[in-house]
Predict the 3D structure of the following.
Amino acid sequence: MAEDNSYESHPDDLSDIRASVRALCEQFPGEYWRVLDRERAYPTAFVEALTTAGFLAALIPEEFGGSGLTLRAAAAIMEEVHAAGCNGAACHAQMYTMGTVLRHGSAAQKAKYLPAIARGELRLQAFGVTEPTSGTDTLALRTTAVREGNDYVINGQKIWTSRAEHSDLMLLLARTTPRDQVKKRTEGLSVFLVDMHEAKSSGGSGLSIKPIRTMMNHATTEVFFDGLRVPAENLIGEEGQGFRYIISGMNAERVLIGAECIGDAKWFIEKASAYARERVLFGRPIGQNQGVQFPIAKAYAQMRAAELMVQEAARLYAAGKDCGAEANMAKMLAADASWAAADMCVQTHGGFGFAEEFDIERKFRETRLYQVAPISTNMILSYLAEHVLGLPRSY
């Protein structure tokens, strides 16, 4: 039997989509990303190419001009982007915010916004949830939305709101009922679709954005709301039920981020394997040494295990089933796998792993983020302990 040296394993009948994404990504090689990384610039050309090809409209139903694909397909798209050495962080929010809009938005909201998003005329890239004082304690957020006539008036601050400078729309979570006036701690929060393009066009009245420079090129920001008026018709679903609505979007986010981490891990493993086969020291390829090959093999095994969990979470989500535990485990295991593969890849390359031209140090920095966000590893473990294992709540 002939030996198969390929570790590509895609039992998901999405090979055509994967091939198309790979072909598109070939137009954006390492040098493209290196230049952007040095300048901390947004990959406009890359995002426009994904939009034109229809990949960012993957989850939008065909009736609204999208592709009508499942989360499994969306995950495959984002995995291939990262496996090709690119970075989907510049645009992935347009996929995971769709869950909230599609499942809980009104017919009028979908008809108004989804076709324009599918055509690329509007970008839905910003997700306003985290705040400086509350962090992952979402129920403690302080941004308020007070009803005044036909509008809600928004006041407060969000942080780590990525892509706000490059997005036309924001999915915003704000408090519409004070905490001391709700029966359940999960009530009193509402979701709004904020037209930032309109606010920016009117001179930024009520809205200001401050970029945050980070260790990777992530286009993240602080957003300040000072009396920003949002039409009441932009409220998604029922007032006070917003936390429940964004949970579905957060599960989709975890699956997609997990898929990106799997792509990163595959990129690191392929990079390390190729180098270990070609690099000759002391008269032999370094990959012949178990001290080099064992960490690569272990990273591969870890990646494959995480990949199966990502696929399972995506399957459950697409079937409309509860996948909170699976989505969280998928994100955590995939982030662990990508970080382990990144560390292994640097170690395999030695000094060359730190050289900009190899792209490893850039991808190393980028994939480190997912140990922390979205949702840190410790929060996932707390979730599993309480909701799966029945242990006492720890916070």
Summary: The chain has a mean pLDDT of 93.
